[in-house]
Amino acid sequence: MSSGFLTSIGGLVLKVTQTLNDGDNTINHNLGKEIIGFEVKDVGVFVETSGDIIDNNNFNINLAGGGPINNAIIILTYIN
């Protein structure tokens, strides 16, 4: 998993690159913050997913079919 921090209007974002499989995928962001938004891209194209907060260090992304996506770009938005 690779990551990088970016600035977004209204919050900060963490960019994570991770393989996503069909079903639930835990994203271990270790921010200690609540995620307030997210998006998933596959080679620059948005992917329809659902997501749930596990705790302040982990987020679940559910990929309903179409997986696996190798090197999916996951953008997690949080407030500092």
Largest sheet: 5 strands, antiparallel
CATH domain fold name: Immunoglobulin-like
Would you report the number of β strands? 8
Q: What is the number of helical segments per DSSP (H or I, 4+ residues)?
A: 0
At CATH level 2, the architecture is: Sandwich
Low-confidence stretches: 1-8
Mass-distribution shape: globular
Task: Strand order, main sheet: write it out.
Answer: 1-2-8-4-5
Q: How helix-rich are the residues, as a percent range?
A: under 10%
Characteristic key phrases:
five-stranded antiparallel beta sheet, 8 strands, 80 residues, mainly beta, Immunoglobulin-like, disordered N terminus, three-stranded antiparallel beta sheet
Write a brief caption for the model.
The chain is mainly β and 80 residues long. The protein has no helices and 8 strands.
Topology (elements, then pairings):
Layout: E1 2-8, E2 11-20, E3 23-28, E4 35-42, E5 45-46, E6 50-55, E7 58-63, E8 69-78
Describe the protein.
The protein is mostly beta strands and 80 residues long. The chain has a single domain (2-78), classed as Immunoglobulin-like, CATH 2.60.40. Helix content is 0%, strand content 69%. Strands 1-2-8-4-5 form a 5-stranded antiparallel beta sheet, with no helix packed on it. The chain is globular, with a radius of gyration of 12 Å.
